[in-house]
Design a protein that fits this description.
By secondary structure, this protein is an alpha/beta fold. It folds into two domains: 110 residues, Alpha-Beta Complex (Aspartate Aminotransferase, domain 1), CATH 3.90.1150; 241 residues, Aspartate Aminotransferase, domain 2. It is 36% helix and 13% strand. It is built from eleven helices and 13 strands. It has a seven-stranded mixed sheet, sandwiched between helices. α2 packs parallel to α8. The longest helix is centred in the C-terminal third of the chain and has 24 residues.
């Protein structure tokens, strides 16, 4: 360890991202990327930005993207008779990981433990270590579901993915609302990286709960993992915000303050243009999500027929185990066959594999490799 490090760096345990293999022939089903490319309209919008204007700084507030997000959710929610989402309710950042980091830094340092599931996104404890936040993990039940009643305890905040990662299980809006009603004194952050593959967004609840923050990413359902764009939506208490001479709702204002004290330009011109166009292209988005969902159900049926136990998933991946085969050995056998999946050497889940849903051709390669591996 370097003598030049700040003392806290010595105790950090960094997040380990999924492998990005260098071999082109591998079927890569380990990092939950979308098998279908970005919206053609998003690609065209990004191409327009490649020119002389790149010498200029981008819009530090990403207003074009904020308007696109607000418009998308206003249309989606109009049918259910909710209030519209306003651009001031939207925060944007360099991937949802950066948005989450700002939330940990700006909303969860209250001297009480942050609560999150024991089996969940492994970046959460990393952020706690980075920002010196005490935390407690709450055990998922025997079926790997979140029991909201277990969170009724003193806390400095609550965070969980919905659907959960890596399990893929989803909470209903009714369950999330029960959690919010029982926890009014600290922030509840719902991390919706995979919500578009089978869940209902908690953005539908932000009007009613000033302590609710919902984060999303364009890396999964909008096929822009390489662009690094994330967002958050918070409560629309605009009248109070104006009275305090602040241009954003309470939670969003905290994120804006952190962002502008860290990096005022988190999104470049290309990212803003591509992300906004991706939200505007509703038809392509809906079509590709439905393709992934249909393929997921096909893979679940086929793997179940091969003896696997597969958790119900509302994500673009599945979480599965085979009672007759060790998960680490299966992952190694699949890799030998040219298929990469994710195996976690962690308590409770060391016999499970997390498998991204690919194209029909990739999924068939997976199933063929599984058949070969389980017959040994």
């Amino acid at each position: 360890m370097s003598k030049y490090w700040s003392p806290f760096v010595k105790t950090l345990v960094p997040y380990v991202p999924g492998e990005q293999p260098k071999l082109n022939k591998l079927v890569k089903l380990n990092t939950n990327e979308n098998p279908y490319g970005p919206s053609p309209k998003a690609l065209a919008a990004m191409q327009v930005e490649i020119g002389d204007t790149l010498r200029l700084y981008p819009d530090p507030n990403g207003e074009r993207l904020k308007r696109a997000v607000a418009d998308y959710y206003s249309v989606q929610r109009a049918v259910a008779d909710y209030y519209s989402v306003q651009p001031a309710q939207v925060f944007v950042g360099n991937g949802s990981d950066e948005v989450l980091a700002h939330a940990f830094h700006g909303l969860f340092q209250h001297g009480k433990p942050l609560l999150f599931p024991d089996v969940t996104y492994s970046f959460y404890p990393v952020y706690c270590g980075l920002y010196g936040i005490e935390y407690e993990t709450i055990a998922l039940d025997d079926e790997f579901q979140i029991e909201v009643a277990d969170y009724n305890r003193p806390n400095g905040g609550i965070i969980f993915p919905n659907p959960n990662a890596p399990t893929g299980r989803v909470l209903t809006l009714q369950a999330i609302e029960r959690l919010l009603q029982a926890n009014t004194e600290s922030v509840v952050l719902v991390d919706e990286a995979y919500i578009d593959f089978g869940g209902e967004s908690a953005i539908a609840l932000v009007d009613r709960y000033p302590n609710l923050l919902v984060t999303q990413t364009l890396s999964k359902s909008r096929s822009l993992a390489g662009l690094r764009v994330g967002l958050a939506v918070g409560h629309p208490d605009l009248i109070e915000a104006l009275e305090r001479a602040v241009g954003h709702p309470d939670l969003i204002e905290a994120l804006e303050r952190i962002k502008n004290s860290f990096n005022s330009y988190p999104l470049d011109r290309i990212a803003i243009a591509g992300a906004a166009a991706a939200f505007e292209d509703r038809l392509y988005f809906q079509q590709t999500c439905q393709q992934v969902i249909a393929s997921r159900e096909d893979v679940v049926a086929a793997m179940t027929a091969q003896g696997f136990e597969v958790l119900p998933s509302a994500a673009n991946f599945i979480f599965a185990r085979h009672p007759g085969h060790d998960a680490a050995a299966l992952a190694a056998a699949l890799r030998e066959a040219g298929v990469i999946v994710r195996h976690f050497k962690l308590p409770r889940i060391d016999q499970y594999l997390r498998i991204t849903i690919g194209t029909p051709e990739q999924n068939q390669a997976l199933l063929d490799a599984i058949a070969q591996a389980t017959q040994k």
